[in-house]
């Protein structure tokens, strides 16, 4: 069976998207669904290529029992072909991705990650880079909740994910 390929995207790929990647990875693992997914993250800028996630992000994740080992990489045009769901952390990342869209098929893969959380009017994951410890902790909670809502969406769409639990 083809795996569902998920790509989380932010600007630097050292704060929000690695946090989202780790949260979603932990969630599907806890649900016994890891085998159905390939999960990755990237940044639109390439500013931090090859770097581990920001230490503040790794600390905030660790407090929530998440280990982040991802190394930053820049978004590649071919990611749009490879991945099934391309989840932007904010509207600026979303707009960047839209510039590379060449078909409706690809357009339909791109979402604002937080838009899956219908309980929340905010559709963006706020950038904590110039913020405080509290902002980094807040990002962890936001991406955990959005991960849960996104997995619920996927379970509706792919019944085999429900049967496997
Ligand atoms: P991220 O946060 O996009 O969530 O990884 C940022 C990381 C680095 C920078 C900005 C935002 N930067 O300007 O270097």
Task: Sum up the structure in keywords.
alpha/beta, Rossmann fold, four-stranded parallel sheet, 7 helices, 4 strands, binds 4-nitrophenyl phosphate
Task: Please outline what is shown here.
This protein has 165 residues and is of the alpha/beta class. The chain has helices spanning 16-30, 55-63, 79-82, 91-98, 104-107, 133-157, 159-163; strands spanning 4-10, 37-43, 85-88, 110-112.
Report on the architecture of this protein:
- By secondary structure, the protein is an alpha/beta fold.
- It has one domain: Rossmann fold (3-Layer(aba) Sandwich).
- The protein has helices at 16-30, 55-63, 79-82, 91-98, 104-107, 133-157, 159-163; strands spanning 4-10, 37-43, 85-88, 110-112.
- 39% of the residues are buried.
- The structure holds 4-nitrophenyl phosphate (4NP).
How much strand?
5-15%
CATH architectural group: 3-Layer(aba) Sandwich
Q: Regions with pLDDT < 50 over 5+ consecutive residues?
A: none
CATH topology: Rossmann fold
Q: Regarding quaternary structure, how should these chains be classified?
A: single chain
- Structural class computed from helices and strand pairing: alpha/beta
How far apart, in Å, are the first and last alpha carbons?
17 Å
The largest sheet, given as strand count, sense and whether it forms a barrel, is: 4 strands, parallel
Helix tally?
7
CATH class descriptor name? Alpha Beta
Q: Tell me the domain tally.
A: 1
The strand count comes to 4
Q: CATH superfamily, called what?
A: Response regulator
Rg:
15 Å
Ligand species: 4-nitrophenyl phosphate
Overall geometry comes to: globular
